[in-house]
User: Fold this.
Amino acid sequence: MKILQLAFAGALALATLTGTAFAQSADNVITIQLKDGPVVIELRPDIAPKHAEQIKALAAAGEYDNVAFHRVIKGFMAQTGDVQYGDMKDGYQAELAGTGGSSKPDLPAEFSDVPFERGTVGMARSQDPNSANSQFFIMFAPGDFLNGQYTVVGKVVEGMENVDKIKLGDDANNGAVADPDRMISVKVGK
Assistant:
């Protein structure tokens, strides 16, 4: 019995240490600079390793800089990350924003049992579960109906008050945003 208790205590200590080391790793954090201030997102490579890696690679390459929040629905979420049509490099194309991705390949779904709560960051996709690429969304409120249907890639750990200030879209047009707010810059680390 004593050996079983020690094994359990050791496993619990390892899980706690791993979680702490994971949470504090600068490699698993991205910082988005918005007009109202920074937003720090802790990525979850433990549940979505391919998605977390793709977001970090795009951020490190500057692909997310100046990309629009093209779809923002009050009480639901703010969607961004269309590096193909959501930036100003070639002129913002509102009618196409949200339909593009990146030069990287689409990713297979990495669904988990992590729930969609306020501050959860999920990967946007088409009807094909294996079509996530560069676009992601930040939840304003819980969205249980998304659980197990979309890949959770992270969570906002600082700056949710700045996410709350992102310009809302048109309810009649599925949250499409005219003259949208943008991710000014996105970097790996804090």
DSSP finds three helices and ten strands in the chain. Confidence is low (pLDDT under 50) at residues 1-24.
